[in-house]
Design brief:
- With about 70 residues, this protein is mostly helical.
- The protein is built from three helices and no strands.
- Helix 2 runs antiparallel to helix 3.
Length: about 70
């Protein structure tokens, strides 16, 4: 029974492991959506911005985790 609980804890950790990453993703998506909807950003460019921002966020998260 302990092993099942440990597996479930590890599985949950995959989804909730880094709250900063989740909040960052939501903030980036919200910001790009706002820029596109206010007609100041072409949707295609918004896609590029979204891609670059998410890759940068992921890279900084990985670097931060490697330093721990």
């Amino acid at each position: 029974m302990r092993s099942v609980a440990a597996i479930l804890r590890q599985l949950l950790g995959l989804f909730v492991g880094d709250a900063g990453l989740a909040v960052g993703i939501l903030a980036i998506v919200a910001a790009v959506t706002l820029l596109i909807r206010t007609a100041t950003l072409v949707p295609l460019h918004g896609g590029y911005l979204l891609l670059l921002a998410l890759v940068a966020l992921l890279a900084t998260t990985v670097v931060r985790a490697a330093r721990r």
